């Protein structure tokens, strides 16, 4: 990287969140803009003003998806959400996609000071084996996250 110092005017990419992160952190010190269609995890939004100051995200990101899910919850008056996910789910689309999306939802619902606060209580469970879903639904979701039937 030091070989190109002074010769680079902007970085286009990388796209993978795990690759964008170190480049974006370093771009801050080099004062070189980084433009990517990646950087979709909520950490890039939460630390935009401190750690990722030279990062510009173009295209879709998880923040709009999280806002959409929160609006659905508000529309239907859901005040409690239990997130059940496979941390390696949808790896064929993007490495750790389900983990990254669930982390963003959990932070938003948990009132992280960097993310808009939604009036929703949440908890979560990682389910690696399909056989664990029944246990999670019976023992962890149960009545604590059940709603009132409005039929």
Automatic annotation (TrEMBL):
One GO BP annotation is: signal transduction
Which residue numbers delimit the Receptor ligand binding region domain?
Answer: 2-93
Keyword 4Fe-4S attributed: no
Protein keywords: Membrane, Transmembrane, Transmembrane helix
Q: Does the keyword Transmembrane helix apply?
A: yes
- Spell out the molecular function terms from Gene Ontology: peptide hormone binding; signaling receptor activity
Q: Which domain of life is it from?
A: Eukaryota
UniProt xrefs under Pfam families? ANF_receptor
Q: Name one GO cellular component term.
A: membrane
Compartment(s) of residence: Membrane
Which protein are we looking at? Receptor ligand binding region domain-containing protein
């Amino acid at each position: 990287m030091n070989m190109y110092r002074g010769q680079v005017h902007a970085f286009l990419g990388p796209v993978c969140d795990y690759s964008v992160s170190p480049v974006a952190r370093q771009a801050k010190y080099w004062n070189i803009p980084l433009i990517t269609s990646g950087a979709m995890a909520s950490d890039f939004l939460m630390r935009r003003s401190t750690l990722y100051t030279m990062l510009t995200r173009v295209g879709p990101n998880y923040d709009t998806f999280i806002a959409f899910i929160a609006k659905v919850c508000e529309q239907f008056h859901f005040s409690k959400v239990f997130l059940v996910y496979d941390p390696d789910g949808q790896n064929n689309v993007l490495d750790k996609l389900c983990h990254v999306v669930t982390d963003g939802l959990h932070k938003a619902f948990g009132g992280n000071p960097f993310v808009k606060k939604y009036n929703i209580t949440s908890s979560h469970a990682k389910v690696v084996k399909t056989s664990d879903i029944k246990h999670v639904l019976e023992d962890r979701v149960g009545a604590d996250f059940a709603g009132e039937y409005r039929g």
